[in-house]
Amino acid sequence: MLLHKISDVREQIKAWKKTGLTVGLVPTMGALHDGHKSLIKKSVEKCEKTVVSVFVNPIQFCPGEDLDKYPRTLEADEKLCNDLGADIVFAPSPAEMYGEGHILSNDFLTYVIPPFFYTNKLCGKSRVGHFDGVCTVVNKLFNIVQPDFAFFGKKDMQQLIILKKMVLDLNIPVQIVECPIVREPSGLALSSRNKYLSEEGKKNALAISRLLFNIKSCYNNGINDIKALSETVYSFLDNNHALEYLEFRDRNSLEEKTVADNDTIVFIADRVENVRLIDNIELS
Ligand code: PAF
After folding, report:
1. Which of 25, 64, 242, 261 could form a disulfide with 271 if both were Cys (CB 3.0 to 4.6 A apart)?
2. Which atom, in ligand 1's list, is nearest to the CA of 60?
3. Is residue 263 a part of any domain in this protein?
4. Interval between CA 42 and ligand 1 midpoint (Å)
5. 36 catalytic, yes or no?
6. Given the residues 36, 102, 130, 241, the one annotated as active site
7. Residue whose CA is closest, atom 5 of ligand 1?
8. What SS3 class is residue 176?
9. 109: domain CATH number?
10. Which residues have C-beta atoms less than 6 Å from ligand 1?
């Protein structure tokens, strides 16, 4: 069932909750790929009802980012959700979520601002305000859908860690389900932004997952010195790459690690053909 109005979603959820059905939410920005598919499948397996939201959230894009050209494929997304057994595809307009003049007017003024310590690093460093937009929209979606479970991919690991902190800090009655990164057989992590890459670009992008796998294998072979692990990067990235960051951080606090251990996640952001790609690997 495709719904565009918050009131229609609320009505349906109310009916389900009356009969005690469990509700799963899969928040997305659409352009659904196999990564999203795995989240939807998990929700359909675990919950009696599944809502997939499809909303390109304007307030999480920074000036100059790809808001206008972000792929919008609602018809195909709806079909995929139906085929997988989702019950509602919720695709609101920006005006439905943020009021008629949305972010440019006084219709919408209240943001959820996650802790600076979690947002002033990694992607938050170059995407200032991005996680405010993510937390605000996810909070709104939680209030609209009131899910028992919400499904997020580990591909956006910083987002996942920040959202878990938001749920904890604000006592939001939802259980976050963390889902593994889905990769192409080549190793490339699935992302809606891969659509921007040429075939050549996709080949070059493989270096990103390869270097992460290499770091993990070095770690498994007993190397825990971060300088030594980081240096391996340069044998993978040629001048088709513009590395934004490669960082070793704690899986809970996002604090920088001095020595790699089982709580370490290696985060990377890199540009290929000017497409910003992120990936990460857990060393445990
Ligand atoms: O991960 C995403 O696609 C988005 O950040 C999310 C969680 C759907 C919020 O707009």
Report:
1. 242
2. 10
3. yes
4. 17
5. yes
6. 36
7. 134
8. strand
9. 3.40.50.620
10. 27-29, 57, 60, 134, 137-138, 156, 159
Beta-bridge mates of residue 265 = 249, 282
Are residues 112 and 237 both part of a single domain? no
N residues, the chain: 284
Domain tally for the chain? 2
Which atom of ligand 1 is the closest one to the Cα of 57?
10
> 């695709």: which residue's tokens?
91
Q: Which atom of ligand 1 is nearest to the CA of 153?
A: 1
Tokens, residue 234: 């340069």
pLDDT-based confidence at residue 49 (cuts at 50, 70, 90): very high
Are the C-beta atoms of 269 and 280 separated by less than 8 Å?
no
Judged on CB neighbours under 10 Å (0-12, 13-18, 19+), 220 is exposed
Q: Rounded to whole angstroms, how far apart are CA atoms 42 and 273?
A: 33
Centroid of ligand 1 to alpha carbon of 27 (angstroms): 6
Residue 280 has pLDDT above 70, yes or no: yes
Q: Using CA positions, which residue lies closest to atom 2 of ligand 1? A: 28
| Out of 92-106, 127-141, 238-252, least confident range | 92-106
Distance in Å, CA 259 to ligand 1 centroid: 31
Choose which residue among 52, 134, 151 to substitute to test ligand 1 binding: the one with the highest number of ligand atoms within 8 A of its C-beta: 134
5-14 pLDDT tens trace: 999 999 999 9
In this structure, the answer to whether residues 104 and 68 fall within a common structural domain is yes
Domain hosting 230: range is 192-282
Q: Does some domain include residue 184?
A: no
Q: Report the nearest atom of ligand 1 relative to the CA of 56.
A: 10
In a domain, 226, yes or no: yes
The CATH number assigned to the domain holding 205 equals 3.30.1300.10
